[in-house]
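User: These chains co-purify. Model them together.
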Amino acid sequence: MQELVLNPPERTLADDAARNAERTSAREEWEARLVDCGPLAFRVARGVLRNTADAEDVAQDALLRAYRKFKDLRDPARFRAWVVKISFRLALDRWRSKRRREQRETSWSTPIPSGVSYSVEEIAASSEFQGRLERALDDLPEKFRLVLILSAMEGHTLEEIARLVDIPIGTVKSRLFFARKKLAEKLK
Amino acid sequence: MNCRVVQKKMMHSLASGMATVSLDVAEHERSCAACQAFYEQERALFCSIDAGLQTMVNQPVPLSCFVRVRARLEEFPASRSPWTPRWTYAAVAASLFLILSGAIFRKQFPRGDASPEANRGVARADREPVLEVPATSSPTARLRPAPVLVAKTASIPPDQPEGAVPQVIVLAEEKQAFARFVARVPSGIAVPSALKPTEPQQADAAMDIALIEIQEVQIAPLDSMNGDGQ
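Assistant: Joint model of the two components:
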């Protein structure tokens, strides 16, 4: 009498090795992207929030979100732009909630200069002008703010900004012009 | 050239990040001290803005940031996606809808009422009469439908056997015990009517209605009226 036995597909050593190699290469690729885009995400968040601890949190969230959705990204070459957008959006969300919280708190207590706690270095570096600049930057529209932050970052040309924000270079120039002009008008 | 126009052009060139101004503006600037001061002032302002923005943005990235990202990645590896698939939301919504609709259905039709076939024969005189419009085919009748009021009361059809009516099954021993109990109850004590054996219902006897018979009517003239007239 013949017996039928269902054998599960055998996992060969070669399959395991291939899988491990694939995992390792994916991890290495991610590590490279983390080193490349991590500072960018942090600086974008820092430009919006102007607080190192908050910017760090936002950069972490943005990078983790990008990592989880990395498979959904059609064009991996646009990873940098993607990270910038995620980081900027998350930073704006946090900045808005923080501002609402501050407004709520200040309405019940005596007004304080700022709800943000700065480190000793930051207090030393900050000046009256810096405070005014930050307030003026907060009043700028989002599209102007992102372009201005990216242009202030080291080593970003107009072409790179256009690629990161996904807009024509002419639009970058005009946005930069209006942003700087508005800032100057507010700071006079 | 007017100083106001020159200052506007200076502002424009500085805001757009141009290092130099146009030739005509530069020429005016050399000759006009006020415009020269304005240009220096504006240039200092824009330099301060750039420096302030660079200080704000180009902060050193803390090393802990990447360490934490790596640690959090270890907690949630890529293979185990923390996001639930989209179809799970639809499945949850569908199951909730089913549960809710089932609950509503049960509330409206309780278990005893669930099968109308089982309750055939139970009179429901408390039901509201239903206004039924008879279906007609003629166009005039369609314009003015004659409503007919029909009281929908379910009753035992005469041709249906008695066994079709749902009854409570009582064992023969229980029936005998109940009869013995009723017989033992003294006659002086008021026995609830529910405990007394039911008498067979007598059909209502036909009642004869006698017609009123009126005798012959006689109309006679009044005497007093005849005397007055004479």
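Strands of chain B lie at 130-132, 148-150.
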